[in-house]
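Q: My labmate handed me this sequence with no annotations at all. I'd like to see what the chain might look like in three dimensions before we decide whether it's worth expressing. Could you predict it?
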Amino acid sequence: MAISINAKTLRASLPEVVRRVKRGDRFTVIYRSRPAFTIVPVDEGDHAGPLSEKDSLYQARAVGRSSGGRPASEHDDELYGA
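A: Here is what I predict for the chain of 82 residues:
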């Protein structure tokens, strides 16, 4: 069973979360009061073993940067709805 953790707590305690995941713990990250993603040990995920540069994740274009100077809250509204 995954342990729920909010995004703010994840940022503040990332080294501890990494240690616990390496020991086998799983975390569901809550963002804006909704489950956003799950952190699982690498050998339990869809990509057993380390990811490589051939993985599509590495090929994806950058997202989240604003050339117009808009604040992050406007990006969030556009991506996730207000």
